[in-house]
Design brief:
By secondary structure, this protein is α+β, with helices and mostly antiparallel strands. It has three domains: about 1-145, no CATH class; about 185-215 and about 275-375, no CATH class; about 390-585, no CATH class. The protein has 13 helices and 30 strands. Helix 2 runs antiparallel to helix 7 (about 360-370). The model is unreliable at about 50-60 and about 590-595 (pLDDT under 50).
Length: about 600
């Protein structure tokens, strides 16, 4: 292992060690990275890291680091799917404590010394390390890079494509790394988004509640009170005229032919806190409190693609923070004036107070912010992102849908679902969740499934990522997205360059042989050969180079192979789809009559 980073405070030292990554040649070896810090921290980092094939030019045990300034551009230090050792030492028995990402594991701890390990898996983005020392809090923000796709181009484009279909589809309760987003109006957030927003703006929120409690907005409440005539003070002329026209038992005025009423209606006004603006404010407090309580009870989202252990650690970690937020919000909800304010739903009333009042206008802005969700078009709010392998599967599925929509009309989709307690948004799986298309010229149907499980098989159930089913119901073509690529010299020499892993190609053979469907006329028999072909989709940007690859040529020969698929490399998959559809959905021949007939 090599020393990648050393950070020093007045009373502590932090060192992170890891193996030098081996990256494919098509990934840029030196994208800019930097370390953001808070507090008094001295930084030392490796001046360069080999990011090409064969990193033997640099010694694995070399531990030379050089001083770097916060936010100074440096080569990337941390990558997905790499083991890292974190050593922390507190000097002179100082009372120092360290907080690491939830995915870290404690290996050894003794007086003043700690040893942790972490592997980020397929999570990329930022992670924080915090050190609490007698001289104050210090914080490092570090960045994890992808190893199989270009992190600054393909990864960002893939995430934006997914978010373009559904804004929060890429977000999750991921505790190992995070990305930065910005508030987005006009969207209903998931609980994970809502908590990220609330956590960022909670102190401002509490300051607003204190300001409103000290000087709440009031209105005038007018009501009609029946009073003795000699005690009435605020009586309109219309009320007097109406009272005199009525028969009553008061003293008569013969000359005027009327009787003075003994009691009359008086309109009385008094200040009240039960205004539309205060109801809206109370609803905001109540809704926020309910969301906190709901989130504090969650242990996992129910997303089967998520890493369960990481999710549990995430919710365990935020639970004490939620309890503290609940306590502070309960104090705000106990403001005396709120006891006279009615309970309503969180619907914004039309009111000029939200434009003119300095405090209530900020409350309105805060309510819109908390209930608007997040967008990746910004760098304000930390939010977890689904790991890169899941994002790649999502992107492949959605991009295939996009390519098909150029030739078909989308009739129905049942693919998007919200997980239990609306914590996150995922793609639904299996046969029940499908995208249904219709070919207008022939009226034939086509279905695309995500992660369909073929269960009722004579042998073992099979679960490819993307399945295209043609209208006959007994023809399938499989596009299996795999966030894996092989690029070692032996492989490249044998197969003709960078390409899909050989075990993934073998899986395609297995799908074609293993998947069968029951004969509708005889359930004991199976229709074999229903899979027309199976192709691995893998991340590689150079389509021109790949056309000479053995697993590209094998698709034409046996309908088994692999195709590169990335935001900037969709041509080969598009060509394959066009070829398949031309066979199954031939355009009807148009007979043109001669002129004049």
């Amino acid at each position: 292992m090599s020393l990648l980073l050393r950070a020093e405070g007045a009373n502590w030292t932090l060192e992170i060690l890891g193996k030098l990554p081996e990256l494919p040649a098509f990934i840029s070896p030196t994208p800019p990275s930097h370390i953001a810090t808070q507090g008094d921290v001295a930084l030392f980092a490796r001046p360069s890291i080999s990011a090409t094939l064969g990193p033997k030019a640099q010694s694995e045990t070399e531990e030379s680091v050089v001083a770097v300034a916060p936010l100074q551009e440096i080569p990337p230090l941390f990558f997905e799917a790499v083991d890292y050792d974190i050593h922390f030492e507190s000097k002179l028995d100082a009372a120092c404590s360290i907080t690491l990402p939830a995915g870290s594991e404690l290996r050894r701890k003794k007086k003043g010394v700690e040893h942790h390990t972490i592997n980020f898996g397929n999570n990329v983005g930022f992670f924080d390390i915090k050190v609490e020392a007698p001289d104050g809090l210090a914080q490092l923000r570090l960045e994890v890079f992808a190893r199989k796709i270009d992190y600054r181009t393909d990864y960002i484009a893939m995430r934006e494509d997914i978010s373009g279909v559904l804004r929060n589809l890429a977000m999750t309760a991921n505790s190992k790394t995070y990305s930065l987003a910005a508030p987005a109006r006009g969207h209903k957030p998931t609980l994970v988004e809502w908590f990220a927003l609330l956590k960022t703006y909670f102190d401002d929120f509490i300051k607003l509640t204190n300001a409103i409690s000290n000087k709440p907005h009031t209105g005038l409440e007018t009501r009609v009170v029946r009073r003795d005539v000699d005690r009435a003070r605020h009586v309109s002329r219309q009320t007097i005229d109406r009272a005199l026209r009525r028969g009553n038992s008061g003293p008569a005025l013969p000359k005027l032919d009327v009787s003075i009423p003994r009691r009359i209606d008086e309109r009385v006004s008094r200040p009240t806190f039960d205004t539309p603006e205060n109801r809206y404010y109370k609803a905001l407090l109540t809704t926020s409190y309910r969301n906190m309580r709901a989130l504090s009870k969650i242990k996992e989202t129910g997303d089967e693609d998520a890493e369960r252990d990481s999710e549990r650690k995430f919710f365990d970690r935020i639970r004490p923070e939620l309890k503290e937020m609940e306590r502070r919000l309960e104090a705000a909800m106990k403001a005396p004036f709120l006891s006279t304010v009615k309970e309503v739903t969180l619907e914004r009333p039309t009111s000029m107070v939200f434009h003119k009042h300095p405090i209530y206008s900020r409350v309105d802005k805060m309510a819109r912010l908390l209930n608007g969700g997040l967008s990746f078009a910004g760098d304000i709010v930390p939010i977890g992102v689904k790991d890169t392998a899941v994002l790649y599967e999502y992107w492949c599925f959605l991009k295939i849908i996009d390519l098909l929509r150029d030739r078909f009309d989308l009739v129905e989709q049942k693919i998007v679902k919200t997980t239990r307690l609306r914590t996150t948004v995922t793609l639904a799986k299996g046969k029940a969740a499908s995208m249904e298309f219709v070919h207008i010229p022939t009226q034939k149907k086509l279905y695309v499934f995500y992660n369909r499980m073929f269960r009722q098989l004579p042998t073992i159930a099979q679960k490819p990522d993307n399945v295209i089913q043609f209208s006959t119901g007994d023809k399938f073509y499989i596009f299996d997205a795999k966030y894996r690529v092989q690029f070692d010299r032996t492989y490249a020499k044998q197969y003709g360059g960078v390409g899909p892993r050989t075990d993934d190609i073998n899986t395609m053979h297995r799908y074609r042989d293993a998947i069968a469907i029951a004969n509708p006329h005889n359930p004991k028999e199976y229709l074999k050969g229903v899979v027309m072909g199976a192709v691995v989709l893998f991340p590689f940007p150079n389509e021109t180079e790949y056309r000479q690859h053995k697993f590209c040529k094998s698709i034409e020969q046996v309908e088994i192979g692999g195709l590169p698929f990335l935001p900037g490399a969709t041509t080969l998959v598009s060509e394959k789809l066009a070829q398949l559809l031309a066979k199954e959905f031939p355009e009807p021949i148009q007979i043109v009559s001669p002129i004049g007939v």
